[in-house]
Design a protein that fits this description.
By secondary structure, the protein is α+β, with helices and mostly antiparallel strands. It folds into two domains: 185 residues; 78 residues, no CATH class. The protein has a four-stranded antiparallel β-sheet, covered by helices on one side. Helix 3 runs antiparallel to helix 4. The longest helix is centred in the middle third of the chain and has 31 residues. The radius of gyration is 26 Å and the shape is elongated. The two termini are 43 Å apart. The C terminus is likely disordered.
C-alpha cells in the first residue's frame, strides 16, 4: 500500500485529466502530492524520492497549465506527466535510492533490509517500473509527434486513444502485476539468507572466545525460535581460521564482523 500512496498524485491526475478542466486536474494532483509529502514528514518517514519528485513534477505542470494554451495541453500534458514520473523513478535508481526499496523497507527488520536478496529484488522491481514509465512516455508522445492535431480527448482516431491511453495503462498494469509476482520467485529460502552483526572483543581473545561472542550476537540477530549456523568471523573482512588470535597494534580491543545463516532451532548446527 505504501507504493500506491507514492503513486497517488499521478493516479489522480491521470483519472482527472481529460474529464475535468486541466487546471482542476493539475491543482488536485498537486494538492495530493503536497498532502502525501506532509503526512510522510509528520509520521517521521524519511524523504522518499517519489514523494519529493511528485511535488516538483506537479509544480512544473501547474506552471505550464496556467501559461500555455488549450491545444498544447490536449496534445502534451499527458506525455509530460508520464515523463515526470519516469524521470523521478530513473533518478532514484541512479542516485542509489531505488524508490521501490524506500517503500519496501518500511517495517522490515535490519537484517532483511541489509540482505543481498532484498537489495537485488527492490533494484529489479524499480527498473521494471522505470521501463514501464519510459514506455508510457514514448507511447503518449507518438500522437502529437506524428499527428499534429492529436488530442487526448480524441476517442475516434486509433493512434490517439491507443497511444495516449491503451498502451500506457497496459504497461502500468503489467508493472504492477510483476511487482506482485516476482518477489516470491526471487526470494531465496530463509536458511540461505546471510545475516551480519558486529561485536567488540579484546585483541587478546582466542578463537573459542571470539566464536562464543559471535554465536551469542548471531543468535540475537536471527530471532526467537531460530539458531544461527555457518557462523563466520572476520576482522576488516579477513576470516579467522584455526586458533589464530587477533593482535591490533596499539589497541586493546577491536570491532569484528560476523555473518551467519539461520535455521529452526531443532535443526541447528554451527561451523568454524
Amino acid at each position: 500500500m505504501g507504493i500506491l500512496f507514492g503513486f497517488a498524485p499521478w493516479i489522480v491526475y491521470w483519472v482527472l485529466v481529460g474529464n475535468v478542466p486541466f487546471a482542476t486536474a493539475v491543482l488536485v494532483a498537486l494538492g495530493v502530492s503536497i498532502a502525501a509529502f506532509v503526512v510522510a514528514r509528520v509520521s517521521d518517514s524519511p524523504g522518499r524520492t517519489l514523494e519529493i519528485g511528485a511535488v516538483v513534477t506537479f509544480v512544473i505542470l501547474a506552471g505550464l497549465t496556467f501559461t500555455l494554451d488549450q491545444a498544447f495541453m490536449e496534445r502534451w500534458m499527458q506525455p509530460l506527466s508520464n515523463a515526470g514520473i519516469f524521470l523521478v523513478a530513473l533518478i532514484s535508481a541512479l542516485i542509489g535510492r531505488p524508490f521501490v526499496r524506500e517503500f519496501a523497507q518500511v517495517g522490515q527488520p535490519k537484517e532483511v533490509i541489509e540482505s543481498e536478496p532484498f537489495e537485488r529484488i527492490t533494484a529489479v522491481l524499480t527498473w521494471i517500473w522505470i521501463v514501464a514509465f519510459g514506455g508510457m512516455t514514448v507511447s503518449s508522445a507518438v500522437p502529437p509527434l506524428i499527428q499534429g492535431d492529436a488530442t487526448i480527448l480524441d476517442t475516434r482516431t486509433p493512434l490517439s486513444f491507443v497511444c495516449y491511453w491503451v498502451v500506457p495503462f497496459t504497461l502500468l498494469g503489467l508493472a504492477a502485476l510483476l511487482t506482485r509476482l516476482l518477489p516470491d520467485r526471487m526470494v531465496p529460502p530463509e536458511e540461505e539468507i546471510v545475516r551480519k552483526t558486529t561485536f567488540v572483543a579484546f585483541s587478546e581473545a582466542e578463537i573459542d572466545q571470539l566464536m562464543y561472542l559471535a554465536t551469542e550476537h548471531a543468535n540475537r540477530e536471527v530471532g526467537a525460535g531460530k539458531e544461527a549456523y555457518d557462523i563466520r568471523i572476520g576482522g576488516k573482512g579477513v576470516p579467522l581460521v584455526g586458533d589464530e588470535t587477533f593482535d591490533v597494534q596499539g589497541a586493546r580491543a577491536q570491532t569484528l564482523t560476523a555473518s551467519a545463516r539461520a535455521t529452526r532451532r531443532q535443526n541447528s548446527r554451527s561451523t568454524y
